[in-house]
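Page 42, continued from yesterday. The earlier attempt failed because a stray header line got pasted into the input along with the sequence. Redoing it now with the clean sequence only.
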Amino acid sequence: MNNRIEHPKVFISYSWSSKEYEEKVMDFAVRLQGDGIEVIIDKWIMQPGNDTINFMEKCVKDENVNFVLMLLDKKYANKADRRSGGVGIETQIISNEVYNNIEQSKFIPIVFDRDENGNIYVPIYLKSKFHYDLTQDNADEEYVKLVKQIYGRQIYYKPKLGNKPKWVDENLNNPSALKLKVLQKEKNIKAIDFLIEEIKKSKIGEEDIKADSEEKNKEIIETYNKSLEYRNALIEIIWNRYENKDFLDNLCDFYENIKNWNKQNKGLKQEIWDAFIHETFIYLIAILFKFRQYKLINIFITKSYFQQGYTDNITNMHFYFYSHNYEVIEKAKNEIDDQNYYSGMAAIWIENIYEPKISKQDFTEADLLLHNLSILLISEQRWYWFPITYVYSENSHFNSSLKDFSLRLKSKYEVNKMKELFGIETVEELKRIFSSMKPFIENKRERYRFTMTFESADLITDFIKIEEIGTLN
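This time it went through. Structure tokens are written below.
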């Protein structure tokens, strides 16, 4: 949207209804006026004896009026459809403008009331026109979008064009040799053991990449891409075996094993397998969340993982409690694409998403969920899971991939279904857990954003107030 308006003027069209409804209309007008938008409304301008029809026609056709806001309720819709009363006459003017004037964006329908069944009131001629809804729980967000439109500001930004995903050119009927072997091993429950041995035998990351080579960056990314077949094999194992009774123990052992093995690696090789561990853990949570395996998610996040120390001491730590350093890979990615990515590693993951089983939204939501659950379930940590993909979500903050999940927590029924995810039994326990996030929000949240963006990673409490949890049946 390029037509910025610094001093906008709007005309509010509404139907005179109950005193309560008219007070609601006036509160809306006052709010707009307070936000710097000049409001024209009959109660502020009309005098006894004035011609109401002439007033409406003048306001609608006035070139200095940037927008006509049509507040829709039952009375407005009925009168408009019957072409009766003041609104009926006004509607004849507006409908002619809507269908015959190229500047249709001047007219903005706003849902201002609903019937007892939650249905909206919209005149027939406006049924197909985009509208704002100020009657739902997200009314404040809708109001923000409305005001942005009135000021001529962009509401949604088109993301940069990405690169073609690697899976586009894959032959789905001809899986890799490794994937075939893994699928065969599924029959005797040896797939995970087989995969860890194949990873240890691989030479990925040991290739001689000359520092002064013009093809250096390309070679680095191509080397990294070799690890994707191992990633894909593990995703298939998780997808096929998450309900198996040995799944939890086998996968925990797998991650402890590969993390300890990778500590002996250096440079690019260590980065590649760190990325493998990091990325596949997000896929693990995405798959378990998709199939509502909430108890397993809780265990994977809260359990201790034992690692061999450099002095033969065994230390326990939570899975995410170590930094991710992808300096070599990210530098190569940035230089190849001539981009300054928030996270080059996250950009690579998004390009290589394992669709159709897991979508970009599934993946980024799982990353954000890990961030939130690490704060909620593991107290007094110096550092929590950082969701490096949060800026690559297909949705904006207003429609975050975490939003639907968050809003469902208003329902006692949903909380009861998800209680194993949080390790709680009652709504009050869940409220106490969320209350514990307050120190993080006040003191640490700003650390959990990329330095090049203003938005921190989304939190569940961005979309639901603690006192709203479990208030619906």
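Notes: Residues 17 and 75 are 7 Å apart (CA to CA).
Reminder to self: strip header lines before submitting.
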